[in-house]
Design a protein that fits this description.
- By secondary structure, the protein is α/β, with parallel strands linked by helices.
- The protein has eleven helices and twelve strands.
- It has a seven-stranded mixed beta sheet, with helices on both faces.
- Helix 5 links the parallel strand 4 and strand 5.
- The longest helix has 22 residues.
- It is globular, with a radius of gyration of 20 Å.
- The two termini are 22 Å apart.
- It binds pyridoxal-5'-phosphate.
- The site of pyridoxal-5'-phosphate has 15 residues, from helix 3 and helix 4.
Length: 364
């Protein structure tokens, strides 16, 4: 039996009739950009994330960048980002003219809050905690540091829709949160889409303007902005999926529980932060023979992937920062040992049993 890493088709099959109608509806209404579907999504998602303002936009990279700009982060500023994350987190900082300052990770693959203060300078303006793999960062500690030093906090929630810490939803700790609805994310569109969330009305107004050519009302350009709007088809897709996200999240958590209980043998299973609702965008195991394990899984038809193969500051695009091996020991160790194994809501017990069996047969 082959087991795919993710199976977006399985989910589509389970909602096909409703989805096809919704997409046809967008074409019938010619509500292609922003419009009624995007508005409905903004209202629904605001309820889901428990924030007053949601601004739908084109993707989760734009949403990070627009929020930084809207908070006044720009040239000469520094922004704290984790050493282990997807490139967008760093790219957004550079895109507004600021400099990313990388901080190593903790035992939960998220930014090590205890190391943030040692990286602060007079130029530091903001922190971007990333709830990596669906696990919340240590937000109480991060907010304490931010308040003490007068820093803004933008939560990168691209992998963590619905995650909570001590019963509190992510994206409600910091000044604002950024979501991606890339198809493979926990809540995924059928193309690129993103969302910005906040309780700060001024920040919401500025972010909305930036994302729509600096307009407030038609042809009233208060500033130069850009074009980063959600298209109607993506909004309609998300409107069909939104009422199901809690159920799909519970299924991810149940699947992780099954791995946690039944996967024995030559891998380390992920640690969950006390008090966290980890929503398992990815289920990441560790092995000292990771490359061998990866080949073994692939040759047995089990999908797997590495998120990510190197700490971001060690990638070629950040060579200008001059980091050396050893600067981020935890992230470096993680990148040598991590492997993401199949995780999606529709994963069956038979599929998980097969993944477990193949891992247990590995002689590394
Ligand atoms: C996916 C992702 C993004 C960017 O989202 P896009 O919609 O692909 O632009 C940003 N940050 C993290 C951590 C991500 O995983």
């Amino acid at each position: 039996m082959n087991v795919p890493f993710v199976d977006l088709k399985a989910q589509y099959q389970s909602i096909k009739a409703e989805m096809d109608l919704a997409i046809q509806g967008v074409i019938d209404n010619t509500a292609f950009i922003s419009g009624q579907h995007a508005k409905a999504f903004e209202a629904g998602f605001a309820q889901y994330v428990r924030r007053d303002h949601v601004i739908a936009c084109a993707n989760g990279t734009d949403s990070l960048e627009i929020l930084l700009q809207a908070m006044g982060v720009g040239p000469g500023d520094e922004v704290i980002v984790p050493a282990l994350t997807w490139i967008s987190t760093g790219e957004a900082v550079t895109a507004v003219g600021a400099t990313p300052v990388f901080v190593d990770i903790d035992d939960y693959f998220t930014i090590d809050a205890d190391q943030i203060e040692s990286k602060l300078t007079a130029q530091t303006k903001a922190i971007i905690p990333v709830h990596l793999y669906g696990q919340p960062c240590d937000m109480p500690r991060i907010m304490e540091i931010a308040q003490k030093h007068g820093l803004k906090v933008l939560e990168d929630c691209a992998q963590a829709h619905g995650a909570e810490l001590n019963g509190q939803r992510i994206a409600t700790f910091g000044n604002c949160g950024s979501f991606s609805f890339y198809p493979g994310k926990n809540l995924g569109a059928y193309g690129d889409a993103g969302g910005m969330v906040t309780n700060d009305a001024d920040l919401a107004r500025t972010a909305r303007m930036i994302a729509n050519h600096g307009q407030e009302g038609k042809h009233n350009h208060i500033m130069e902005g850009r074009n980063s709007r959600m298209d109607g088809i993506q909004a309609a897709v998300l409107n069909v999926k939104l009422p199901r996200i809690e159920n799909w999240t519970d299924l991810r958590i149940a699947n992780a529980g099954y791995y946690q209980a039944n996967l024995q043998g030559p891998v380390t299973k992920p640690r969950v932060r006390p008090g966290a609702r980890h929503v398992y965008h990815l289920y990441v195991v560790q092995s000292d023979s990771r490359d061998g394990l990866k080949s073994h899984l692939e040759s047995n038809g089990i999908g797997c992937a590495i998120h990510y193969p190197a700490p971001l500051p060690h990638m070629a695009c950040y060579s200008r920062l001059g980091h050396q091996p050893g600067d981020f020991p935890m992230a470096e160790k993680a990148c040598d040992t991590i492997l993401s194994i199949p995780m999606f809501p529709e994963l069956t017990q038979a599929q998980m049993d097969r993944v477990i069996e193949v891992i247990q047969n590995f002689e590394g």
